[in-house]
Structures are given as structure tokens and as C-alpha cells.
TrEMBL record:
<feature type="transmembrane region" description="Helical">
    <location>
        <begin position="38"/>
        <end position="58"/>
    </location>
</feature>
<keyword id="KW-1133">Transmembrane helix</keyword>
<dbReference type="InterPro" id="IPR010432">
    <property type="entry name" value="RDD"/>
</dbReference>
<feature type="domain" description="RDD">
    <location>
        <begin position="7"/>
        <end position="132"/>
    </location>
</feature>
<dbReference type="GO" id="GO:0005886">
    <property type="term" value="C:plasma membrane"/>
</dbReference>
<feature type="transmembrane region" description="Helical">
    <location>
        <begin position="104"/>
        <end position="123"/>
    </location>
</feature>
<dbReference type="Pfam" id="PF06271">
    <property type="entry name" value="RDD"/>
</dbReference>
<keyword id="KW-0812">Transmembrane</keyword>
<dbReference type="InterPro" id="IPR051791">
    <property type="entry name" value="Pra-immunoreactive"/>
</dbReference>
<feature type="transmembrane region" description="Helical">
    <location>
        <begin position="13"/>
        <end position="32"/>
    </location>
</feature>
<feature type="transmembrane region" description="Helical">
    <location>
        <begin position="79"/>
        <end position="98"/>
    </location>
</feature>
<keyword id="KW-0472">Membrane</keyword>
<protein>
    <submittedName>
        <fullName>RDD family protein</fullName>
    </submittedName>
</protein>
<keyword id="KW-1003">Cell membrane</keyword>
Amino acid sequence: MANSNIATPFPRLIARIIDKVIVTVPFFLWFGGGDQTMIEPIAGGILLVYVVLLNYLWDGQTVGKRFMKIRVVSYEGGKLNIFHYLIRELTFNLYPIYLLTHSWIKTGWTIWMIATILLILQYGRGLHDMFGRTKVITEAVEADVQGNKKIDSN
């Protein structure tokens, strides 16, 4: 039988950190001497494109998610399209709103992130999952009849 366990917050966080390091560290090493107010939004935009495209091309996974053996799937069943992943990432990151100087925007962004964390802890889905109609699951490793391992993500 398929296993559709909701992923816990820890592997989700580690997967996000892995992806961020893969994209941003080389970018900051290459352009690190420049203006930080320009580098951060550009690196964030590259990270957005990286996450959306890899999720779409790798069936709900990025390098970090593959390493942590988790996957983004549709909450309602069915196949996700690129717009699900785009909406999910845009609502998670709100690029580049956190760079703005108005304190009320930073406060709103902080509340948004805290709400997302609390929802993930309570229900296994954050605001970005709800807007993107997704959930993050752990991949179950099952043995088939011949004794070979296979990964089933449904």
C-alpha cells in the first residue's frame, strides 16, 4: 500500500536550507563584493526559479527534498502543474517584501512566517501549502515481491 504520511517540519526545514545553500552560496561567492541590497533580491529570485522548476521537473522534489526523502504532492490528488508550485513558493517567500524598510511590512512578514510555522506544526500544512493546494509527504520505502526496494510517494 502507498504511504502518504505528512512530512514533519524538521525534514522540510533541512530541505529548504540545503536548496538555499546550493543556490545562494555560489551566487554570493561570485558576486559577494557588490551591493547587498541588489544581491539578495537577485539571489532570492534565482532560488524561486530553481525551486519552482525543480519541483515541476522532478515531480515535487528539489535537491534538498530528494536528500530528505520528501515530496510535494497535490492535497486533492492528481498532478500538480507549474502554477501550483509557483503560487506555493510566492506565498511562502513573498519576494522581496522582507527587504523593504517599512516596519509594518516587516512585522506583517514576520506574522506570516510565524503563522506558517504554527500551521505546519499543527496541521502539517502551511499557508503556502494551502494556497498552492499541496502537502509535503515522506516517501515510503517498500519491498516488492522480488525483494527489491522501491520508493512509493502516493
